[in-house]
Amino acid sequence: MLDRFGVLGRLKPRGRRRIGSTDLTTHLGDLVLPNPVIAASGTFGQSDELADVVDPADLGAITVKSLSVEPWAGNPPLRVAPTVGGMINSVGLQNPGVDEWCASGLPALRDRGARVIASVWGHTVEDYGKAAARLTRVRSDLVALEVNVSCPNLHADSQMFAHDPAATAAVVETVVAQVGDLPVFAKLSPNTSEIVAVAERAVDAGAAGLTAINTVSAMAIDARTRRPELGAGTGGLSGRAIRPIALRCVRLVSRALPGVPIIGTGGVASGEDAVEILLAGATAVGVGTATFEDPRATVHVRDELDEWCATQGIPRASDLVGALEEPA
Ligand SMILES: Cc1cc2nc3c(=O)[nH]c(=O)nc-3n(C[C@H](O)[C@H](O)[C@H](O)COP(=O)(O)O)c2cc1C
């Protein structure tokens, strides 16, 4: 098994290959990307804001910030608190609404040749369905749709959709019914012991793949004022600190659902981080908070992954997917 995947090369390199010669082609089901690095939702803008530092077409894909049917103002300030190994944010899904994004955000990304993954959120199953339906007008400019189910369900005492397998399935089913052949990825929350059940129901409901993980519930307290640092009180932890959590979640879900494409996301900031999340079972790699530290983090992760594979004598990055050597 290890030989087949070339992972023994990690211990005994089979000879260096030229950097740039690794095949980074990534198959997420029917969706084929030139490389596995995908900008994570909410960390790469809503259009081509970062185009001066990263050519959007250079990435496998760009997932834009989650969109709702109507514009949404998000949470009061402060919205971001730095912490050890990452940050806690309570941006609160601020966005201009699907229609405005289709008119003013999407065209620039499309014109630059980016492969765009739209992301939708809502407070009810119907909200998700409406947001997805409005995106069908721009179907040809999208490669996939991500469903951000880390939102309070107003019809279930504001319990997160992503913490409830049935509610997640209802959202996915509704969205899939709207978007036809556009692949739908359900974004999983790490803040539930039900993550495998949620993933299974999402796939049963028609999700073509999964994104794991969203942020980890957290808060920051200002000792001097004795108040929460964030305006919303609590928020979501992201960045290097959550990488071990993401690895575990990806491994759990990929073992339960072999063959289902997973965009492994959480704390990836280097090529070797990307290797680790691929070994855990991810098919592609989401890069989020690292972009705030280094606006070119996404391309650095891609190039370092290429270099790592070349150094280890691994011809295809996809050879790493799920090739974790499990303890006996
Ligand atoms: C400032 C900020 C905004 C985010 N906004 C969204 C969002 O709109 N939708 C979503 O699904 N995830 C959102 N996320 C979560 C990221 O997409 C990602 O899942 C998470 O941060 C873990 O990856 P990372 O550690 O690489 O950042 C956001 C994260 C950050 C830091």
- Low-confidence stretches at least 5 residues in length (pLDDT < 50)? 1-14
Shape: globular
First CA to last CA: what distance?
A: 14 Å
- Overall mean pLDDT stands at 94
Q: Which sequence of SSEs, written as H and E, runs from N to C?
A: HEEEEEEHHEHEEEHEHEEEEEHEHEHH
Helix content: 25-40%
Largest sheet geometry: 8 strands, parallel, barrel
Helix count equals 10
Number of strands: 18
Oligomer: single chain
Structural class: alpha/beta
Biggest sheet, spatial arrangement of strands: 3-4-7-8-11-12-17-18
Bound molecules: flavin mononucleotide
User: What is the fold-level CATH name, i.e. the topology?
Assistant: TIM Barrel
The CATH class = Alpha Beta
CATH level 4 superfamily:
Aldolase class I
Nearest-angstrom radius of gyration? Answer: 19 Å
> How many structural domains in the coordinates?
1
Tell me the CATH architecture: Alpha-Beta Barrel
Please state roughly what percent of the residues sit in beta strands, choosing from under 5%, 5-15%, 15-25%, 25-35%, 35-45% or over 45%: 15-25%
Give an account of the 3D structure.
The protein has 328 residues and is an alpha/beta fold. The protein has ten helices and 18 strands. The protein has a single domain, classed as Aldolase class I (TIM Barrel, Alpha-Beta Barrel), CATH 3.20.20. The strands form five sheets. The chain has an eight-stranded parallel β-barrel with strand order 3-4-7-8-11-12-17-18, surrounded by six helices. A four-stranded antiparallel β-sheet has the order 5-6-16-13, with no helix packed on it. Strands 1-2 form a two-stranded antiparallel sheet. Bound molecules: flavin mononucleotide (FMN). Flavin mononucleotide binds next to loops.
